[in-house]
């Protein structure tokens, strides 16, 4: 698997394992351990997913069974910043650590900007956690250019990541260009649009051409755009398939054809309107 080097020198896998909308429970804990067994080293969760405890159980089981060391893993969570103060954000991080059962996280994100710029105080708390050596890197999620511009006027630590909805129907060229200019790595959530992308005729044609699944075509598209991607699946065979995207290359023409599917279609909330309600 390929890695990217973040702006603080930390390496992060290009393909990780997402757990959005997977409830707490033994099934999730086992799925996380299985994902690690299959080769995943990056696991992405969030406070609002309400599954950090099960994710942590799966991670700790993999470590305890000698499948991997903690140092080999890259664990991400996010703070749900609905009206959080600076102090409450610090407490939220400690709560996530306790639930996951680890001494530190590799990445901690502000989950949404909201519509009232509350994220400034939240991010300042993340900076303290980072300066104190409690987390290896910090970043943001769902930030548009104007959110990033406002943040960077106040920030002392440049975010390493902006995790956004990204796929051929929502290419977010302006955000990606701004992040590239500032040295902020873009990461895609919901890269498969909850599976709806897999029915696209072009994607199916490319899958047939390369002998790959439609999901692998989309994930390869992400990788070739230098975007970190975190697909979700509970099926072990698909876990393996989602990692097998480094043995073929889409042509420039094919990448352009996929880019041309862009029509601004979202499968999640619009950051300009979403305010945690």
UniProtKB/TrEMBL annotation:
Residues binding substrate, per UniProt: 111
Question: Where in the sequence is the active site?
Answer: 49
Q: Per UniProt, which keywords does this protein have?
A: NADP, Oxidoreductase
Q: Where is the NADP-dependent oxidoreductase domain?
A: 26-262
| InterPro entries tied to this protein | AKR, Aldo/ket_reductase_CS, NAD(P)_OxRdtase_dom_sf, NADP_OxRdtase_dom
User: Which GO MF terms are attached to this record?
Assistant: oxidoreductase activity, acting on the CH-OH group of donors, NAD or NADP as acceptor
- Domain of life, per UniProt, equals Bacteria
Pfam families given in the database record:
Aldo_ket_red (PF00248)
Q: Which Gene3D superfamilies match?
A: NADP-dependent oxidoreductase domain
Site positions (Lowers pKa of active site Tyr): 78
PANTHER family in the cross-refs: 2,5-DIKETO-D-GLUCONIC ACID REDUCTASE, NADP-DEPENDENT OXIDOREDUCTASE DOMAIN-CONTAINING PROTEIN
Protein family: Belongs to the aldo/keto reductase family.
In its UniProt entry, what is this protein called?
Answer: Glyoxal reductase
């Amino acid at each position: 698997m390929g890695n990217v080097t973040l702006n603080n020198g930390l390496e992060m896998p290009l393909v990780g394992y997402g757990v959005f909308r997977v409830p707490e429970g033994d099934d999730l804990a086992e799925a996380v351990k299985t994902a690690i067994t299959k080769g995943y080293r990056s696991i992405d969760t969030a406070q609002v997913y309400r599954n950090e405890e099960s994710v942590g159980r799966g991670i700790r089981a993999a470590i305890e069974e000698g499948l991997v060391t903690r140092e080999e893993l890259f664990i991400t969570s996010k703070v749900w910043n609905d009206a959080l103060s600076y102090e409450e954000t610090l407490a939220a991080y400690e709560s996530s650590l306790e639930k996951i059962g680890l001494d530190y996280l590799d990445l901690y994100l502000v989950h949404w900007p909201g519509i009232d710029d509350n994220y400034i105080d939240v991010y300042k708390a993340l900076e303290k956690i980072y300066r104190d050596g409690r987390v290896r890197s910090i970043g943001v999620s769902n930030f548009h250019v104007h959110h990033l511009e406002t943040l960077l006027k106040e920030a002392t630590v440049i975010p390493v990541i902006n995790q956004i909805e990204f796929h051929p129907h929502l290419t977010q060229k302006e955000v990606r260009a701004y992040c590239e200019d500032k040295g902020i790595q873009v990461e895609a959530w919901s890269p498969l649009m909850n599976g709806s992308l897999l029915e696209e005729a072009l994607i199916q044609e490319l899958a047939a051409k390369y002998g790959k699944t439609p999901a692998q075509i989309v994930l390869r598209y992400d990788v070739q755009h230098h975007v970190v991607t975190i697909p979700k699946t509970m099926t072990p065979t698909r876990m393996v398939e989602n990692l097998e995207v480094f043995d073929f290359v889409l042509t420039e023409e094919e990448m352009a054809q996929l880019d041309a599917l862009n029509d601004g279609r979202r499968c999640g909330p619009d950051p300009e309107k979403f305010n945690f309600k």
